[in-house]
Each structure stands twice: as C-alpha cells, then as structure tokens.
Specification:
about 325 residues; alpha/beta; D-Maltodextrin-Binding Protein, domain 2; 10-stranded mixed β-sheet; 12 helices; 10 strands
Length: about 325
C-alpha cells in the first residue's frame, strides 16, 4: 500500500479538522427535521406564554416543523430552566424566558443548580414591556398618590400579587414599597394567570403586572390601571401616567427572549435568530406585539447576551438596595 507523502499530511489533517464544522453547517441547513419543544417556565396565559405561542407559531410557519409549547412553572422559573439546561444541545429544546431569569442570578445565587449565563445560550431577544400598577375596582385608589395615602392609612392590609418570587412584577412592587415607605403584603403565585384570577376576584387588591398579561382586563374595565412602571408612558395606553410622575426616579420594566441549552451550535442559534428577527420585522406579528404594549428588541445573539448581563447587574443593585431576600 502506498502511503501519503509527508507533504500531504497537513492537508489531510486540515480536512479532518473541518469535518465537524461541515457537519454542523449541514445540520443547521436542514434543521429542524422534527418538532421542537419550547419550554415556558410559567403557567399558561401569562406574558411569557403568550409570547412563546406567537413566536412558536411564526417559527412553525417559517421552518415547517411544529414548535410545541410546554409549560413548566414553579420555583421562580428554576424548574423550567433546569429542564432546558439538562436537555441535549441539539436545537430541539428551546426556552422563552424573561427578567425573572436575570433576577434569579442574584436572588437565588446560592440555591440554583446552574449558571444561567454559562448554561443558557442566548438566541434572540423579543420584547421589552412595562409593568402596570393595577387594582381591583373595590380598592378606592384611582391614582398613585391615592394608593400611597390609602396604603399608609392601612399598613399591612393591602395584598400585592405577583406571578412568583423574583419576577419583575414582584421586584417592581418591592421597589415601590421601598421608595414610598408603605407596608403591603406580597402574595406569590405560580404564574400570571392564577395571580390575575385572584386579583379579578378581589382575593388580592393590587398587582404590578406586565402590560401584555393585563391589558385586556384593563380595556374591559375589569381592572383599574393607575400607572405604568417605565419612565415614559406606553403607546398602548397613552393616557395612563407613569409611576415616576409621582415617585421620581421609579422605573421597572421586563424583557423577554429565546434561549437554548448552553452548547447549542452557533449555526442553529444563528438560524433561529435570523428567523425570529424576521418575525419582529413582519408587519402582522409586529402589530400583535405592539398591541400587547411592548417594544420589539431585534438584535444578534451577542446583543442579547449583553442585554442579559446588563439586566443581571441592574436587578442585583435593586435587590441589594431594597434588601430583598429569597422567599
């Protein structure tokens, strides 16, 4: 048998080294060849779930495979996140997550079994949304100053719901309490839907809910909106003031995006990012997202990684300033 000339070895070695890259590119070109699971770490009907279904439908239409939503609520998103972290990094398990994941990095630092930045690959950011201060109609307050006065006259008697400890809704309420000096009781649920159910029934009186989850109840008059939590007013409810108009410096908002197991190939991540960004530019989907009261966040996976790092830093400061402890 004739052996290759030694000058050929570098070329042979280079060819062998390129095989994995070629294989990954080929996989990305044909991906997906079967249904994709999209884990939502909250109960159905909340903001994260709504966005997952909108993006999932878009990706199904664009890529020709079903993107199946799987709700895994509990433990402040940690149950759903762990399921994604432990899944094969092959692009067939994704996750729609939000601000709670950035908050957990500090709030549950010593309790979580994963490193979110290391173990979840950022795929694409989707949306930034304000929280909105909503009350049950039985609560007499109709403005933020009236709410503060009522809470000071009734310390510890107003129950504030949230979709879970460590969510943006929870921290928005805690920050409001610290900045106004009022005493209210936090009641946590396993998602927006059960929290809003009790708020609508008057079992709790107040919430700092994400606008997409509560906007239809506001429009229907079932909940009374007092203010949005962003510095600027929301285009979805332009007549509604911002909390900062009465509590200077107050600001709280949430972000949402898509992630995958940490070692998912960059080729698959880039393909998904491209398709999601196309959705954010599509007039129909963009209008649906705007109707929820959010602002779309197109960008690269690297942009999303930077956003996550900034959010972790931001909420760490709030948690320390408000002395918030994991419940």
């Amino acid at each position: 048998m004739r052996l290759p000339h030694r000058r050929q070895f570098p070329h042979l070695a280079a060819g062998v080294g390129a095989l994995p890259v070629v294989s990954r590119v080929a996989m990305a070109q044909t991906y997906p060849t079967r249904p994709v699971r999209v884990i939502v770490p909250f109960a159905p009907a909340g903001t994260t779930d709504i966005l997952a279904r909108l993006i999932g439908q878009w990706l199904s239409e664009r890529l020709g495979q079903s993107f199946i939503i799987e709700n895994r609520p509990g433990a402040s998103t940690m149950i759903g996140t762990e399921a994604v972290v432990r899944s094969p990094a092959d692009g067939y398990t994704l996750m729609v997550f939000g601000t709670a994941s950035a908050i957990n990095a500090t709030l549950y630092k010593n309790k979580i079994s994963y490193d979110f930045v290391r173990d979840i690959a950022p795929v694409a950011s989707i949306l930034r949304v304000p929280n909105v201060v909503v009350v049950h109609p039985s609560l007499p307050a109709r403005t933020i100053p009236e709410l503060i006065a009522h809470a000071k006259a009734n310390p510890g008697r107003i129950n504030v719901e949230s979709p879970g400890a460590g969510t943006s809704s929870h921290l928005a309420g805690e920050l409001f309490k610290v900045m106004t000096g009022i005493d209210m009781v936090h009641v946590q649920y396993r998602g927006n839907a059960p929290a809003l159910t009790d708020l609508l029934a008057g079992q709790v009186q107040l919430g700092f809910d994400t606008l997409p989850a509560s906007i239809e109840y506001i429009r229907a008059g079932k909940l009374r909106a007092l203010a949005v939590s962003t510095l600027a007013r929301s285009q979805a409810l332009p007549d509604l003031p911002s909390v900062s108009e009465f509590v200077p410096g107050y600001e709280s908002s949430g972000f949402f995006g898509v992630g995958a197991p940490g070692k998912t190939s960059s080729e698959i991540v880039d393909k998904l990012n491209k398709e999601i960004n196309a959705g954010l530019a599509d007039p129909k989907l963009k209008a649906q997202l705007a109707d929820l009261g959010g602002t779309v966040l197109p960008g690269s996976p690297a942009d999303f990684r930077t956003l996550i790092a900034e959010e972790i830093k931001k909420w760490a400061k709030v948690i320390r300033a408000a002395n918030i402890k994991a419940e």
